[in-house]
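Please predict the structure of the following assembly.
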Amino acid sequence: MSVERGQGEIVCGFIPLTDCATLVVAREFGFAAEEGVDLVLRREASWSNIRDKMALGLFDAAHMLAPMPLAMSLGLSAFAAPIHAPFVLSVNGDVFGVSQALASRISAAQGSVFFDEPRLAADALASAADRRPLRVGVPWLFSMHTVLTDYWLGRCGFDLDREIALNVVPPPFMSEALAAGEIDLFCVGEPWGSAAGESGAGALVLSAASIWSFAPEKVLGVGEPLLRDRPETLAALLRALYRAAEWASRPMHRGAIAEVLSRPEYVDAPAELIERALSGSLIVSGAGEVRNTPRALELFGSAATFPWRSQAAWIAARLVDRHGLDADLAARASDVFRPDVYRSAVSRIAPNLPAASAKLEGAMPQAVEAPGVSGSLRLGPDQFFDESVFDPNQL
Amino acid sequence: MSTRIAVIDPDRERALLIVDGLKEAGENDIHVIGDDTGVARRLAEINPDIVLIDLENPSRDVMEQVAHASGAMERPVAMFVDRSDEGMIRSAIEAGVSAYVVDGLRKERIKPVLEAAIARFHSIARLRAELDATKAALAERKILDRAKGILMKAKGLSEEEAYGALRRAAMDQNRKISEIAQSIVTAAELLK
């Protein structure tokens, strides 16, 4: 079922977070209009709304958590529907924090709280926590937040079934949930992590990039009708997003973007907080302690917008593992990332795209010059904290 | 047997309107959850047959988890995703409400509740739109009065003449009279 659309019109849902920046820039700074796309942005209060409106065809496309299209096609979440991901809207950008009670105990024992080193942080957590399971606040069940929480704590010796309990908490309520003693630990996208740090309700311990230094965070989810019936309009949107992401990634434009994002119809949060999030500067505690994290939120660099099939395969492998599904499903689910659709749209304006559509995930401790379609291009760094390397052909 | 319904809505006024609508629809035992935190705990206490939640409420994602992992409640909860009734799901989503029902609840008990909720959400949306329109009209009225006052003072006009001048300018420039009034007020503030 779909709804009538005007010429070039694309109705796209989004959640008020810093990483909806590329969509907002595409609309507000004219990139969509230049491509002949009337990009209509609809703010939603929950990921469940985004899923339902995509499944029912009320939206053509949406800002989605990277695991969402996979979970929808695996039938893990209600309203199964085929959703494609032909563009990555952001890489990294999530942070982990602890409640004030835990922060006090950790800092008494260790002298500091913000480690940005997953093993040290997990050890400190294991000795400071006075209860099991640890209650972890995450924005949605099928998100990079849960996938990275599981990966980090699971690989650091926590028993995920007995020692960890995931509690869904909408990002704007994270500080309240901490203050009310409902969660011990949380993982959330900026600016809500810094908001919790600044409020003194909690303190940050890690940037999620310290767990996986190149984790696709949000993607553009596209419904079947737009992909099948209006491929030219979709291609025009992808070109507009590519140019918007390139523009948005330049440090000199951060102030202007933060100003627009802060408006009530978008993120509705102070511009200063958003500008900090765009530049990767975190407020880690109520004392106003600020820390800069490398590779905090990547909108464009290192081919960040390219939807690697291997990224989808890694996420699919985690979902299949966690939810006890048939391993064959992982390979099929990873087909929802669509580098082919990206290539055919974007190569017209950016010919030097990655030569491959899948790579070994976690195999680039430093940035490297990799083969592109016409010349070389810079990729990475892309590494897991436990130095494991994921080969998508294993699926 | 009455149906136990939980309405999750931090907006008290709207929650009461929905409760009224549900009472008219039948013998229902209705509970309102107004706080943003502790939604999962309150749901476990109430143990409802049907949960109604406003789509503008971010706590919908919390409800989703409760529905997904029934551990938080005594009875398993499944989301109301009856594919045979996609029309009703769609009407509900378009009206701005989502419903979750316990597994096995009979359709004839779900339908009147959902229909009443959809009707109430539509009428609340209409009320809000009317209120917004009234507020906007009032604001325009105030600006118009201020613009008239400015013209009367600056050019020694009567109220009627000031209004006439505004109307002529609007017609000449093919703009709304409220836009002309706004320009005069803005200009007067800058020239103060």
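Chain B has two domains: 3-130, 131-191. The mean pLDDT of chain B is 85.
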